Amino acid sequence: MSVRLLETILLMTLVTYGSRVLPFLLFKGKNVQGFARDFIELVPIALLAALVIPDLMIQGDTIAIIHNPFLWAGVLTFLFARLVPNLFLGIIFGMSVFWGLDKFLK
Amino acid sequence: MNQRVSREVKKGFAFGLRQSLTIAIGYAPVAVTFGILATQFGLTFWEAGLMSFLVYAGAAQFIAIAMLHQGATVGMVGLTTLILNSRHLLMSMSVVPNFPNRTLPWSLGLAQGLTDETFVLNTRVLKDVDGESNRRRVMLGINLGAFVSWFVFTILGGVIGKWLPVQFSGFQFALLALFIILTISSLSKKNLMTYLLAALLAIVFKLLIPGKVYLLLSVTLAAGIGAWWRRRELPLQNEQQKGQMPKL
Questions:
Q1: Which of A97, B37, B96, B246 to pair with B69, CA 20 to 30 A apart?
Q2: What family is it from (chain B) (predicted)?
Q3: CB half-sphere exposure, A38, CA atoms < 13 A
Q4: Which residue of A has its CA nearest to B168?
Q5: DSSP secondary structure letter of residue B243
Q6: Best residue of A17, A24, A58, A92 to probe chain B, by most B CBs closer than 10 Å
């Protein structure tokens, strides 16, 4: 195994386990409130937007709409996931649609 | 300390393990997909397995292998993982009051298995279990069942990916599909504005700034503005709900 991969895994373990265990070690049962709580609550949804939307819309270094299989596969997967709330089926659907569009649009 | 055992059925480790079955079944296809993708991105099946064993965080693992494949630095992957997984702080804080007399080994052990899915199940199940020591065992069972499934099915996926090297362009889209499904299940009226703001900021920053910095910038800004907006919008309800909320 490469050193880079091992370092990555250990660093990921540290930050992930850290955020799981800290409250167990430090908290007596009080919850965070106010701005901090809202902020932590909103981080995951903001991250999902930042991870998904640019990858769907930007190809190379410009916004691509028409000949962009990522965008259309993304739109269809959004619609599918709304109708069928199943993780496994959603992933299969997304991959298949992308595969089809990738062939069709190129 | 209340060590009384519930009179009806004793709820302990085995009970927790049975409860974990739904999660274990749900994890299986995702873990298999992760294992296959990891081998496609150049990891061996045991490296994928090690990552599932130690990190044990679905979305972060998918991002990590994709980022590593694209040549991201260790620090960048670590930072992205931190942003993504800081949400465990909240879940952990919300579970902790179930265990006021926990010992250090129990703290270290129970924290290991906390994921979005086990958190939801534990929250639902633990409130009907009497006695802290029983609650500990139930949570251990729930956590362990889910964890073992994630680990074993990652290995299985890795082996499948190794022995059947599938050429399928759809794998490029697996991670985005996963995120889109997660988005649909967590998007609500309360966070839609933050989502749209983050999307807009991320596009702009990605076009302007090279590298992955756009992730941190857009997430921090959007969540910050979103949280500030909520405080502004609902000061009355919040104070009524929470009693003595500290002044901001």
A1: A97
A2: Belongs to the AzlC family.
A3: 21
A4: A99
A5: S
A6: A24
The pTM of the whole model exceeds 0.80: no
To the nearest whole Å, the CA of B81 is away from the closest chain A CA by 6
Measuring CA to CA, how many Å separate B220 from each of A40, A85, A87, B208?
Answer: 10, 29, 27, 17
Contact (Cβ atoms closer than 8 angstroms) between residue B23 and residue B118: yes
Percent helix, percent strand, percent coil in chain A, to nearest 5:
75, 5, 20
- The ipTM value here is 0.85
Nearest to B88 among A16, A74, A90 (CB): A16
Domain range annotation of chain B: 13-186, 188-241
Q: Which residues pair with A58 in a beta bridge?
A: A63
Going by their DSSP bridges, the two strands A62-63 and A58-59 should be labelled as antiparallel
Q: What is the pLDDT of residues B56-87, one digit of tens each?
A: 998 899 889 988 988 889 999 999 899 888 87
